[in-house]
Amino acid sequence: MNQILPDISQTQQPNYSSPLAWVGMQGIDLPLQLEQSTGIYPILCKVNATVNLPRADIKGIHMSRLYQHCNQLQQLNILEIYQLLQKMITSHQDCGSSAAQFDCQFELLLQRHALSSPELCGWKAYPVKLHTKLENGKFRFEFGVEVSYSSTCPCSAALSRQVIHDTFVDDFQNDTELKTHQIAKWLLQNASLATPHSQRSLAQVTIRQHSITQDLKIIELIDLIEETLQTATQTAVKRIDEQTFAKRNGENLMFVEDAARRLSYALAQPYIDWSLKVDHQESLHPHNAVAYQHSEHWLTDI
């Protein structure tokens, strides 16, 4: 026999009558599948789900309804999230809700090959965040990724070269018949008298989309960032791979401004609305160097 249980959210008036911007649930655990061009990836998500509460006389929303709607989600794609937002609003018509938000964060685990040993590979996790909103029929979708890479300071590299140059001149100032093999031997022994400092760095890129028919191309964005910077952090390596990585660092010296400008140019080709932050976690200083950039209408297109 079904017993009728009390529901004070429907029978009791709020102590203070006022509308609320957003009400909902945060940190819901949700296993989903992410379909990409390279395959289907299982992901464990932390989800936030909220709706607006414009009716001042309603004590509380239907939390369990939000949870059940989220729990029915299986695939993480733009169309299904849009339909989820519609259900969240429809199920709260008695609260006067006209807007819903769905946020999600997870780590996308990808297998990455070594730079010079094609048989060698390892796993690398990429943090991903999604923010979506449906308000008065207007849909907004943003997804962002974080990519770690190495950045070698151009100033430090120049200073290191100067030390090596000065030492070379001092060692051979009286040698008028210098041979190639002498130079090569000296370089093997002394070319690291001073070395430029590098630091692990982070690129955080966010893309904004408005169409529900677009695909969620997360791996394509990650690949674009890594190909642009050329010095993505590595997983499994042998000495030859570490040498290749060192060579790439030497060929891609960059201040935080250089990294931001590189990425800005690369993102402007395939994307309309985007923003970025690059963070060089200094090895010389106890503080970090950061740079930000965004597309022309990023701040107004909200």
UniProtKB/TrEMBL annotation:
One GO BP annotation of this record: tetrahydrofolate biosynthetic process
Site residues by UniProt (May be catalytically important): C153
Family matches, as Pfam families: GCHY-1
Domain of life: Bacteria
Catalyzed reactions per annotation: GTP + H2O = 7,8-dihydroneopterin 3'-triphosphate + formate + H(+)
Pathway of action: Cofactor biosynthesis; 7,8-dihydroneopterin triphosphate biosynthesis; 7,8-dihydroneopterin triphosphate from GTP: step 1/1
EC number: 3.5.4.16
Keyword check for Hydrolase: yes
InterPro entries found in the cross-reference section: GTP_cyclohydrolase_FolE2 (IPR022838), GTP_cyclohydrolase_FolE2/MptA (IPR003801)
NCBIfam families assigned: PRK13674.1-1
Family: Belongs to the GTP cyclohydrolase IV family.
Its biological purpose: Converts GTP to 7,8-dihydroneopterin triphosphate.
Name assigned to this protein: GTP cyclohydrolase FolE2
Source organism of the structure: Acinetobacter brisouii CIP 110357
Phylogenetic classification of the source organism: Bacteria, Pseudomonadati, Pseudomonadota, Gammaproteobacteria, Moraxellales
Annotated gene: folE2
